[in-house]
Amino acid sequence: MAIRLKKIQKENPQDRKQSKWYLVQVHSGTVTLQDIAREIADRSSLSIGDVENVLANLVEVLPIFLKLNQTIRLEGFGSFHISVQSTGAEKAEDLTTNNVKNAKIVFIPSTELKGHIEHLSFEIIKEE
């Protein structure tokens, strides 16, 4: 199945008189935790409720390990860790936790997961 793309025109934010055309992905919807649970249950001997329970617990447990400064590595899937950005200071002693300006969760897909999207095909859809 091909990844669907559409053409859009974007202005240059530094010079509004200039613009270029780009290809962007057309999203076809959203998959929920329940959708994933149903798909996994269909491939296993587990019930949808069992799989939903495991996935819900995974969502609850991941932040516990992230808050302990752990990298979470799920074999075949990828890893999660916290990344922090801060403002700089002239001297090390001037740095405090107030210098933290952003913390986010970073996901790095595994080699196996990345391998599943190596040979994608694309199609450009016509504007309606």
From the structure above, extract its key features.
single chain; 128 residues; alpha+beta; 3-stranded mixed β-sheet; 3-stranded antiparallel β-sheet
Describe this structure in words.
With 128 residues, this protein is an alpha+beta fold. It is 27% helix and 36% strand. Strand 1 (3-12) and strand 2 form a beta hairpin. Helix 1 crosses helix 2. The protein starts with a strand and ends with a strand.
In short:
Helices cover 27% and strands 36% of the residues.
What spatial form do the alpha-carbon principal axes imply? flat
Distance between the termini: 21 Å
Q: What's the number of helices?
A: 3
Kindly estimate the percentage of residues that lie in beta strands according to DSSP: 35-45%
How do the helices and strands line up, and which of them pair or pack?
Blueprint: E1 3-12, E2 15-25, H1 33-42, H2 48-67, E3 72-74, E4 78-86, E5 100-109, H3 111-115, E6 122-124
Parallel strand pairs: 1-6
Antiparallel strand pairs: 1-2, 3-4, 4-5
Helix pairs in contact: 1-2
